[in-house]
Amino acid sequence: MSDAEQPGAILLAGPTASGKSALAMMLAARLGGQVINADSMQVYADLRILTARPTPAEEALVPHALYGVRDAAEAGSAAWWRGAALAAMEAARAAGRVPILVGGTGLYFAALTEGLAEIPPVPEAARAEARARLAAEGPAALHAALALRDPITAARLKPGDSQRIARAYEVALGTGRPLSAWLAAGGTGPAPWRFRGIVLDPPRDTLRAAIAARFDAMLAEGALAEVAALAARGLDAALPAMRAHGVPELIAHLGGGMSLAEAKARAVLNTGQYTKRQATWFRHHPLAAGGTRIFDARFAVKTQDSECLYEYCAAFLEFPR
């Protein structure tokens, strides 16, 4: 199949609280699309409120996929998401709908547009050892241990990047081969689709205000009860769902370790720091080879700018004007 014959899909990315979901729903309604989740935290069923997943009422307005599909006890991965996303895209295409993939996880988009290394399953014993060492020694010590097994990967990771350090360590330990070697060996290629991208990149002060307001709304909607139910499960603290923004802080509050005001302040600060990293990633990694439009504002309501974004997508999909 030539590039011109490949089906088209829209990629919509940006930092947390930039208005991606609202824009995705607008585009889906006007383009006859299906919204497909590309956020690593919104896949977890346990965290509808704290990850700002679409509400049941919003999901009823346009078709949605890959929201709340994994249990918090299951660690997701870019490889799992890529396979699930491709299946959801094909299902949307079969139903005559345009796939609109929306999220803030850059690695997920890269897995789709660039491909992934084919790494074999890691034995649970290796995963357990990596998590145990991370918990007992901290990320800096595990980073030093990783440097002995995989100096190439260790050199590109910051000593505080606990999730990626643990992953690289468990791969080297469990497969007997460094992650850098698996990546160098190649793997799956780009998905056989044409992509057009939109990146939301609001000013930092706008984003910080939106994050704070959204956290207040989450608390009003029952985020504390949601986190209490998750904490009661006694899951491994290293699992991705247990590290979702707001979860560690609210668990600390529920345990008496800090006031609710302090938990909120820390969660808002940590989320803001994360959005800075997200924005930096998207600025340095082209979202779609077919073209990417940068929207330097937070999307909140239908405006003249949103009409331009619709026209941008409609032209790519060759919709009647």
What can you see in these coordinates?
By secondary structure, the chain is of the alpha/beta class. The chain folds into 2 domains: 3-116 and 188-316, Rossmann fold (3-Layer(aba) Sandwich); 124-184, Histone, subunit A, CATH 1.10.20.140. 52% of the residues lie in helices and 9% in strands. It has 14 helices and 6 strands. The protein has helices at 20-31, 56-61, 78-94, 106-113, 124-137, 139-149, 151-156, 162-175, 179-184, 204-221, 223-231, 247-254, 260-284, 304-316; strands at residues 8-13, 33-37, 64-65, 98-103, 194-200, 292-295. Strands 3-2-4-1-5-6 form a 6-stranded parallel β-sheet, sandwiched between helices. Strand 2 (33-37), helix 2 and strand 3 form a beta-alpha-beta unit. The mean pLDDT is 92.
Q: Can you give keywords for this protein?
A:
single chain; 321 residues; alpha/beta; Rossmann fold; Histone, subunit A; 2 domains; six-stranded parallel β-sheet; 14 helices; globular
